[in-house]
Design goal:
The protein is an alpha+beta fold. It has two domains: 141 residues, Sandwich (Jelly Rolls); 74 residues, Arc Repressor Mutant, subunit A (Orthogonal Bundle), CATH 1.10.10. Strands 1-8-3-6 form a four-stranded antiparallel β-sheet. The radius of gyration is 19 Å and the shape is elongated.
């Protein structure tokens, strides 16, 4: 059984709320299980509610007219998904799919609206989340439009290393998924990895990538 309150207290959306409020929020959340490949929601659907990842991993992506998948982001434990659409009342702007078996907490839109009315602090937290998401996608657009693949890869590795507080980055996604996230194809990504490895900037061992020369990566990024 998921300890809902323990998950909720670490979600930025509910940061700073007292224990009794977290208990009330937990009382209106539903636990939903999604297996690998299950669709959480689809682009264009009306948002009846939003989700919080309790365990597992969910990818957010769009499909081009040619049927090509473009991965926008990966979300893991403690992160909300679909909340922007619920807050704005607009349809989901992208698709969400479980990458592995995932446990999600679901909050219906009508219940969420009552929460925001009773707890204005949630609205302020939501503004913070929206600004972070906007920044993420602004950087992503900038990377895709202005940087070569090696620069996008360098920026990604530096970001992951910063998140981990280590010079070792372990990929929790496939190279195909990473290529999609970086707006390229697996063959081009492999060439970029090989080039950085030959230059001594990184050492690649399967899914593990060690950063040997962060200065070189920063120059590329």
């Amino acid at each position: 059984m998921i300890q809902q309150r323990d998950i909720l207290q670490d979600v930025p959306l509910f940061k700073g709320l007292p224990r009794e409020q977290l208990e009330k929020i937990a009382a209106i959340t539903l636990e939903r299980t999604f297996h690998r490949g299950d669709q959480v929601f689809s682009e264009g659907e009306a948002p009846e509610g939003f989700y919080i990842v309790a365990a597992g991993q969910v990818k957010i992506y769009k499909m081009s007219r040619e049927g090509k998948e473009l991965i926008l982001h990966f979300f893991g434990p403690g992160e909300p998904i679909g909340e922007v659409a619920v807050f704005s009342g607009s349809p989901y702007p992208a698709n969400a799919e479980a990458l592995v078996k995932s446990e999600l907490l679901y909050i219906a839109r009508k219940d969420f609206e009552r929460l925001v009315t009773a707890q204005p602090a949630i609205a302020l937290n939501m503004l913070g989340i929206l600004s972070v998401r906007l920044r993420q996608f602004t950087v992503q657009i900038e990377n895709l439009s202005l940087k070569e693949v090696s620069g996008r890869l360098a920026a990604y590795l530096l970001h992951q290393a910063g998140e981990n507080g280590s010079d070792l980055v372990t990929l929790d996604i496939t190279k195909g998924q990473l290529a999609s996230l970086l707006g390229t194809i697996p063959e081009t990504l492999s060439r970029a990895l090989a080039k950085l490895s030959e230059q001594g900037a990184i050492v690649v061992d399967g899914r593990a990538i060690r950063i040997n020369n962060p200065k070189q990566l920063r120059a590329l990024a």
